[in-house]
Amino acid sequence: MKIFKNLLWILWCASLFGQSAEKASQPNILWIITDDQRADALECYNRATTGKSESPLGYVMSPNTDKLAAEGTMFTNAYNNSPMCAISRASMHLGRYPFRSGHYKFF
What we know:
Elements: H1 2-20, H2 43-50, H3 63-71, H4 85-94, H5 98-101
């Protein structure tokens, strides 16, 4: 009976410590991938890389994307080693080179 009381006491104390820990909230991630455009086609990237609002070839008017970029993180030095859009998106999602993931051709 004494062992049962000790075990019950230990379990009760352990449950108190387990309840005090709060769960960490997960961040909300919005990952926007566009293809078939130059790096300076969006005004937010043009400002981040060159400091100008317009490129010599013009840019896409995207005020909502510019607002999202101002609040979040932009990757200004991101490169992809695949010239085709579906394979490059798959390699960015998987985090592997296309030849390592088995993506060799256009889908």
